[in-house]
Design a protein that fits this description.
Number of strands: 13
Shape: globular
Length: about 160
Amino acid sequence: MIISIPCKFGEKALCRRMLVFCGVDWFRWSSGMEYTYFFETGDFWHEADFYTGDGAGMSKYIEVDNVLLSSFVLREKGLPLRGEGSVEGFRFKNGKKYDPILCETFYFLHHCVESDEKGYCVPGGDIIFQRNWNEKQIDAILSKRGGKGRESNIS
């Protein structure tokens, strides 16, 4: 699928003012696709601004493999999480791209795994966990990977 974006990740674009583009989510409505674009504010209490739209008029695009957009067994695609789910967007942090994962089996959202240009998990890459997960929950996932790959939280 082609995802329309306002500029490359890490570049500045207009979102009420010029801010660094750091993410996009998508949702398929019956009437078509809707995108939410995220921009870093640099404010600790309000980390990101966002706006939504249908992607019309965007100057750039990224591609994601269609197989990642529908429910699949997460481990079969190299993701270090159990259950079934799908990729719901992209995030950009510290020069790396991440996939926010929607896990339908266990009803959690927003674990982000480091990904390549097409949205596939980078083997042994970083994981950004939900803010409400405790150390025991995080360690259970990381222990299967030798305890490596932890990144600080992301909005």
